């Protein structure tokens, strides 16, 4: 079995790395840092990727792509995640909101929404979770009722990433309240500048820029912003989430951290003048990480390969997501142990080992088992659909 990428994909990786070396500014530490320059920078960066046909390369030509193979697209995902995701919030529209529109959107919607995504001009957010509907998403209660020639939306979303920067929101809401909970839902495309929308940031350990509550008070949404059949929003949402879990290359950041730790332990000496790399506990930690990094990478490639062969399933993404998110936590823990007490200092503090990289990663790894559907829910999927165990 061949585990290497095709030669053209590797050549493309080199080109992409050179481009990023030239384009990423000195201050860029990653999407999840708290810095006002991030959103404007990521928009500009996406437009530059688009100019080179690298933003939506696996999309069909008619939607602004170049019909590239899935491995080239995988190279983009890996290199972007490794560099702290300089596409910013747009990774969501590129990885899963766009593909969902290709599956369920009308020709008019595709023309109107996919082109700006492919040009890197527009930011989207995802309005699914509510205070009383997270894992049990179908329990959501945000309503869209019929008004004078449009929907009138009322309700609240929570944990909406990047809502302060988003131009549009993919909103899952209830259009037919009398139906059973998985029925009567609909997917709407909502302009975030519509009157009646209030975004309230939630402060979190990840910094104040990421999470938000979004309130909808009599928000008018035109009927032509309904995606997929009315009342069939659950099917649209499940397709969106399936694309979301496939898009993640969580292993790519692990490789960056592992390389940094290897460099650190070989160049840093302990109180006896010996390199940290000679300590058995350090060596066993790094070897454990290397083995798991390789496994995580192959679990991800398995999904891509199945997609390319048209035999994708929802168990493989669940396995990959659980394994990779837990690996990200593990490398945070092992890495902080290795760099010691000063590892808790943050980026920019002159005394922080690896310029705070490990602490920064640790903080942002904690939510990974919750994001994209919690690991408990993924384990339920594996148990029921993968192992055939009863609910
Ligand atoms: C980094 C991050 C980004 C996010 N971005 C967005 C976003 O942009 N848009 C959006 O809509 N949402 C977003 N979310 C929200 C995310 O989808 C939810 O947090 C997640 O679905 C869990 O819902 P909850 O927080 O309400 O927890 P709950 O559903 O209340 O779960 C609480 C705990 O109970 C467990 N649990 C619940 N049900 C079961 C079960 N049946 N079996 C076993 N265990 C169970 C869960 O695993 C969890 O540990 C984001 C979350 C994170 C962490």
Account of the protein in words:
With 391 residues, this protein is an alpha+beta fold. It has three domains: 7-88, Acyl-CoA dehydrogenase/oxidase, N-terminal domain (Butyryl-Coa Dehydrogenase, subunit A, domain 1); 126-231, Beta Barrel (Butyryl-CoA Dehydrogenase, subunit A, domain 2), CATH 2.40.110; 248-386, Butyryl-CoA Dehydrogenase, subunit A, domain 3, CATH 1.20.140.10. It contains eleven helices and eight strands. The protein has helices at 7-23, 38-51, 70-82, 90-104, 107-118, 233-246, 251-267, 280-308, 315-339, 357-365, 375-386; strands at residues 124-127, 143-146, 150-157, 168-174, 185-191, 197-201, 212-222, 226-227. The strands form two sheets. It has a four-stranded mixed sheet. Helix 4 (90-104) packs antiparallel against helix 5 (107-118). The model has no long low-confidence stretch (mean pLDDT 94). Bound molecules: flavin-adenine dinucleotide. Flavin-adenine dinucleotide is lined by residues 125-129, 134-135, 159-161, 367, 370-371, 373-374, 376-377, 380.
What is the gist of this entry?
This protein is an alpha+beta fold. The chain has eleven helices and eight strands. The protein starts with 6 loop residues before the first helix and ends in a 5-residue tail after the last helix.
Keyphrases for this structure?
12% strand, four-stranded mixed sheet, four-stranded antiparallel sheet, Butyryl-Coa Dehydrogenase, subunit A, domain 1, alpha+beta, 11 helices, binds flavin-adenine dinucleotide, 391 residues, Butyryl-CoA Dehydrogenase, subunit A, domain 2, Butyryl-CoA Dehydrogenase, subunit A, domain 3, 3 domains
């Amino acid at each position: 079995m061949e585990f290497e990428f095709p030669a053209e994909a590797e050549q493309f990786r080199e080109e992409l790395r050179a481009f990023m070396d030239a384009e990423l500014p000195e201050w860029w530490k990653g999407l999840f840092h708290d810095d006002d320059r991030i959103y404007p920078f990521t928009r500009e960066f996406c437009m530059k990727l688009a100019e080179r046909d690298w933003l939506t390369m696996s999309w069909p030509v008619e939607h602004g792509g170049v019909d590239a193979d899935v491995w080239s697209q995988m190279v983009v995902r890996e290199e972007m995640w490794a560099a702290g995701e300089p596409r910013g919030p747009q990774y969501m529209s590129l990885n899963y909101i766009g593909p969902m529109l290709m599956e369920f959107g009308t020709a008019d919607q595709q023309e109107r929404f996919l082109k700006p995504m492919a040009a890197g001009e527009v930011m989207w957010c995802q309005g699914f979770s509510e205070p009383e509907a997270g894992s049990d998403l179908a329990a959501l209660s945000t309503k869209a009722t019929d008004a004078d020639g449009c929907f009138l939306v009322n309700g609240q979303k929570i944990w909406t990433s990047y809502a302060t920067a988003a131009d549009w929101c993919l909103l899952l809401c209830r259009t037919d309240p009398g139906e059973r909970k998985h029925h009567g839902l609909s997917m709407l495309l909502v302009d975030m500048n519509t009157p009646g929308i209030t975004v309230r940031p939630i402060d979190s350990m990840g910094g104040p820029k990421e999470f938000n509550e979004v309130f909808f008070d009599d928000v008018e949404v035109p009927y032509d912003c309904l995606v997929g059949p009315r009342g069939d929003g659950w099917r649209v949402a499940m397709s969106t989430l399936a694309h979301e879990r496939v898009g993640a290359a969580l292993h790519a950041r692990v490789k960056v951290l592992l390389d940094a730790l290897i460099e650190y332990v070989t160049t840093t000496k302990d109180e006896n003048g010996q390199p940290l790399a000679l300590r058995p506990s350090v060596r066993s930690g790094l070897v454990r990480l290397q083995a798991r990094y390789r496994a995580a990478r192959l679990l991800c490639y398995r999904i891509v390969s199945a997609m390319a062969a048209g035999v994708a399933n929802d168990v493989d993404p669940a396995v990959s997501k659980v394994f990779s998110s837990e690996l990200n936590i593990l490398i945070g823990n092992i890495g902080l142990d290795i760099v010691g007490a000063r590892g808790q200092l943050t980026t920019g503090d002159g005394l922080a080992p690896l310029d705070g990289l490990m602490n920064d990663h640790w903080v942002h790894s904690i939510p990974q088992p919750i994001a994209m559907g919690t690991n408990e829910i993924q384990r339920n999927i594996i148990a029921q659909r993968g192992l055939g165990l009863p609910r």
